[in-house]
Amino acid sequence: MINLTTKIILLIVPLLVASILVTDALLVDSRATDSHTVSTDTPVTDEVRVVSFSPEISEIIAYLGGIDSLAATDINSTYPDELKKLPKIADYYSVNQEALSALNFDHILLSRDFNALIISKLTKYQNKLHIYSITDGSNLLKVIEDLGKILHREKQASDIINDIQMKIQNLREEHANKPVIKTAIVIWDKPLLTAGGETFLNQAVKLCGGSNIFEKLTIKFPSVSAEKLIAGKPDVVISLIDDNQNLPSSLKNRTVVLTREQQDSLMKISPRSYETGIPAVCQAIDSARNLVHDKTQTAD
Question: Domain end: 166, 199, 217, which one?
């Protein structure tokens, strides 16, 4: 059983090295289908079989009702539970080439962020590769649309996109006139890692009427000192780790620890993020807003 610490390390390390390694991998694999374009080299049939090496993409396929189209996945594709029953033939670092060769499939679906370390190992399948980048809500909607086309589930994709857009609009309207709450999101504590401005987590904070105190940092998950975190004077610290013993003691009474499912749904961007992760962020920010309001009332 992989413990939570190992899971978080496995999530963070590939994201941090992806920007360095993926360029070389894509140069080797320059004919792979990139972003949101469906390859024309693979004939379109009603019985589409795909392999997903990204937990985000696997989740989207499940939301589209396409689990039966999955021939295999990576070991991190475990939500929903039905995905656990599928053959697991890859992790962040390697692919079981023998198992992959034995499968009958039309497409291999990868994430630029999660799969940077294995893209170059799949050059023999370059005409079947689809490489996506899901870094924010806009990317997510485009990927859902494209996967809907690949799986011949355009109607389901359209319904999911409309639902997400409605959720986003509702969140914006709900928090438009509320006081802005200074927020920090901590995703790791050794070293102390937070979310910068170029992350989905930053978007979540904004949707909930918060202001990320590290938004101006362009690194996705910058390392900051405890002193810098304290100096930012956050009204709330949203923690994506279970053990917060290494967080500054002066901020512990302002820290909200998300559940493991909530953490997972924020680190793996999918429709579930808008059902579970972002509502949890909003709840944490709303609670902090109420505390700030109460303190203001008491002071008056």
Answer: 166
In a domain, 80, yes or no: yes
The model's pTM: 0.83
Domain region containing 281 = 174-299
> Is the C-alpha dihedral spanning 224, 227, 232, 235 positive or negative?
positive
Spatial CA neighbour of 198 closest among 150, 154, 136, 257: 136
Cis preceding linkage at 80, omega within 30: yes
The per-residue pLDDT string of the chain (300 residues; one tens digit each, 9 = 90 and over) reads 445 445 455 555 555 444 434 434 433 343 344 544 333 344 444 689 999 999 999 999 999 999 999 999 999 999 999 999 999 999 989 999 999 999 999 999 999 877 888 888 898 998 999 999 999 999 999 999 999 999 999 999 999 999 999 999 999 999 999 999 999 999 998 899 999 999 999 999 999 999 999 999 989 999 999 999 999 999 999 999 988 888 999 998 999 999 999 999 999 999 999 999 999 999 999 999 998 755 654 554
**Distant-in-sequence, close-in-space partners of 5: CB < 8 Å, separation ≥ 6:** none
Statement to judge: residues 179 and 158 lie in one domain: no
Q: Are 254 and 288 in contact (CB under 8 A)?
A: yes
In a domain, 252, yes or no: yes
SS3 at position 240: coil
